Amino acid sequence: MTATSHLDFIVPRSKQAMAIALLQGPSLFLPLTGKPISFPPIPIKSRALFLKAAMMEGTEAAKQEEVAGKKKIFVAGATGNTGKRIVQQLLAKGFAVKAGVRDIDKAKTSFSDGNPDLQFVKADVTEGSAKLAEAIGDDSEAVVCATGFRPSWDLLAPWKVDNFGTVNLVEACRKCGVNRFVLISSILVNGAAMGQLLNPAYIFLNVFGLTLIAKLQAENYIRKSGINYTIVRPGGLRNDPPAGNIVMEPEDTLYEGSISRDQVAEVAVEALIHPAASYKVVEIVARAEAPRRSFEELFGSIKER
């Protein structure tokens, strides 16, 4: 077994050999006489530059190998208020991320740290499953959907994004062979069945083109797709830091309450880690009086339907 030095992890052995030759001064053997011809050693400054370049190349190769070995997650809506937090938490957990965005240049300004594990691709959920499949590619192991329409006078906007857009993502997953899908939805999507038709939040959220109904239809499509899903239904979304612990309940249970987007992102990321989150719809809010529970316990408390 060949001994391995610390340098082997930084600079390939071929580069090491070249560097050592330069340090010692190269020599050649004449084919007829067998006598070596020595050349003057390369100046110290040049040797240092070569060694530095060799080490940088080796380090870059090591980084690329490390990124290639990480699970890559495609995030749709990566520059949104919740999507951005999901991207950040995925990276913090050691995942590689492929951020699906409509404007790559604008997206890069939102993530200025230049993380090598973060890749930007152009993706618009309203443009059909074929283009989305190209964006997701064959290197993504899961998809997280954190898209959401922007309120406008276009009453079809919720259906274009929250319904048809999500359906397009599901179909793109099928084309790519991706079998893990996490959707950020909302509590009260099934408010009518819960007897919450007069709930002010249900009324308000449906003012812009029946948003909750559009989300519910998308949820139903995912559940019938055969793909391993986790549907996360948060309460009212806050941009503030977390205040209180996460409360997780089965579908069609919560009709009030709020939660920090940071905690929503955390639940989405943890759903990818814990098998107990598979094929489940979970509703979440945060409450100051709630006990702190592990995610294994939280997901494990929800029955699969």
Quick one: how many beta strands?
Answer: 12
The CA-CA distance between the termini, in Å, is 54 Å
Largest sheet: 8 strands, mixed
Which structural class do the helices and strands define? alpha/beta
Q: Catalogue the unreliable spans.
A: 1-33, 59-65
Tertiary shape: globular
Instruction: Please state the average pLDDT score.
Output: 85
Q: Order of strands in the sheet with the most strands?
A: 5-4-3-6-7-8-12-10
- The percent range for helix content is 40-55%
Order of helices and strands: HEEHEHEHEHEHEHHEEEEHEH
Gyration radius, rounded: 26 Å
- Counted by DSSP, the helix tally is 10
What fraction strand?
15-25%
Task: Give a description of the structure.
It is globular and about 80 Å long. By secondary structure, the protein is α/β, with parallel strands linked by helices. The model is unreliable at 1-33 and 59-65 (pLDDT under 50). Helices cover 40% and strands 19% of the residues. An eight-stranded mixed beta sheet has the order 5-4-3-6-7-8-12-10, with helices on both faces. Strands 1-2 form a two-stranded antiparallel ribbon. Helix 5 packs across helix 6 and helix 6 (157-176) packs parallel to helix 8 (211-224). It has ten helices and twelve strands. Strand 4 (96-101), helix 4 (104-110) and strand 5 form a beta-alpha-beta unit.
